[in-house]
Amino acid sequence: MRIVSSANGGAFKPYSDGVLSRMSGSAITRREAVRRALLGAGGLVLGQHSNLGALAATPSPKAKAKSVIQIWMWGGPSHLDTFDPKPEAGNDYCGPLKSPIETNVPGIKICELLPLLAKQADKYSIIRSMTHRNNGHETASYIVQTGRMPGGRLVYPSVGAVVSLFDGYGAGYKGLIPPYIVLTQLQGRFSPSGFMGQRYEPFATGGDPARTPFAVEGVVSPSITEQRQKGRRELLHQLDTLAQVLPASAELAASAQCEKEAYDLILGDAGKVFDLAQEKDEMRDRYGRNTFGQSCLVARRLVERGVPYVTINYGGWDTHKDNFQAMRRQLPVMDKGMAALLQDLCDRSLLDQTIVWWGGEFGRTPKIMWESPWNGGRGHWGNVFCDVVAGGGFKGGSVVGASDGKGEEVKERPVYPVDLIGSIYQLLGIDGNGKLPNPYGSDTRVMPTTDESVKSAGLLQEIM
Q: Is 84 within 8 Å of 128 (Cβ atoms)?
């Protein structure tokens, strides 16, 4: 085992205009989904928001990673029940999960319900000293996904939105699939694009990839056959007399290009990235025939196509009640899907260029709440928690930092969200000093500046 360390040592509701306001939480319509896809690709011919992409520098030639798969553990997973077990702390802390197992890296142990991931430990590193000391879902989610502290006038963009700017539109991304995808539902805690605006919001697929077909909003409609879609397109062309009268119109040509790319997304090869029927049954079984497992498989297919950022929004980890019943249901599902993803990326020579980032907004209370109505539940705990990173330049087989004997506080090498986020940006070749498009005209940078007073203990050079 390589254990590495270093000496460096009230909720708000933001809205998409970048100013603190009431949270929207509304789902986008199919028409809006297609419109966003067009703005991400064909819409560029109309000159939409072209000034924003101009602010993004081309990724550095030193970039090691091309894509990120973020496994977002919505609700906050228990660190003691996953990657930082504490059997020596006793029953009031470890409960029935008191027999952690060895991994394929000597000296690293993880929860006994993760046997497949135990065989993959050489591919990932565990950060056991994440901290921000915030116990609110909305505020903790914001801190973990932006690296900033809440409470100011601006809502900053999430990592996914920043990557879609610099490694997506700003880097000349030409894919018809938007550069920032969420499988399958938005978390709704805050606007991921922040002050950068609607264009950098993620495309949430909706649907369930474990079903056939995977009905992706804006791409696949289960009620309309492919033949009927083609018939509609032919009828549209027959009725388009204006294009026949003005064949040289630049505006109509741009509109026709948008229409072509929309249908290419719906009927062409681009949309087939979501068609898991193209995968062998053996591969689908390896990931697990469930929503999370099949989402992991879709994520692999997306980064294989060059999509820069994919979030798998995996809910069910807010275990205030009956924590251990939930762990026995969910951890085997997570184990199978995540282990298959790591191995599949490795087998396809994609892991070296794909960052896999596992984690939620915080951990859970180390001391178990045995009393009714919690019945062995765990509350929110932002003092110390775990994240896992793999691929894209992150070394495997290592542990960064440590919590104390009961998993209550950081014992050594604190890692703040901004430290992890900055490390991800560096591996992607994104300049932390790069400018973000700010609608208010202020000078806003990718990484916090010193006057923002954001706590940091330094980038994760130990595993980069």
A: yes
- Give the pTM: 0.81
Helix H or strand E encompassing 359: strand 354-359
Q: Which strand (E) or helix (H) includes residue 425? A: helix 417-428
Residue 233: give its domain's CATH number: 3.40.720.10
Are the C-beta atoms of 358 and 73 separated by less than 8 Å? yes
* Beta-carbon count within 10 A of 151 CB: 10
Residue-range definition of the domain harbouring residue 238: 2-463
Number of domains in the chain: 1
Q: DSSP label at 157?
A: P
pLDDT digits (tens, 9 = 90+) for 319-349: 999 999 999 999 999 999 999 999 999 999 9
- 3-state helix, strand, coil split of the chain in percent (to 5) is 40, 15, 50
Backbone angles phi, psi at 18, to 5 degrees: 85, 0
Q: Is 269 helix (H, G, I), strand (E, B) or coil?
A: coil
Which residue in 389, 421, 434, 380 sits closest to 149, CA to CA? 421
Spatial neighbors of 309 by CB under 8 A, at least 6 apart, are 67, 68, 70, 159, 160, 163, 164, 167, 168, 179, 180, 181, 202
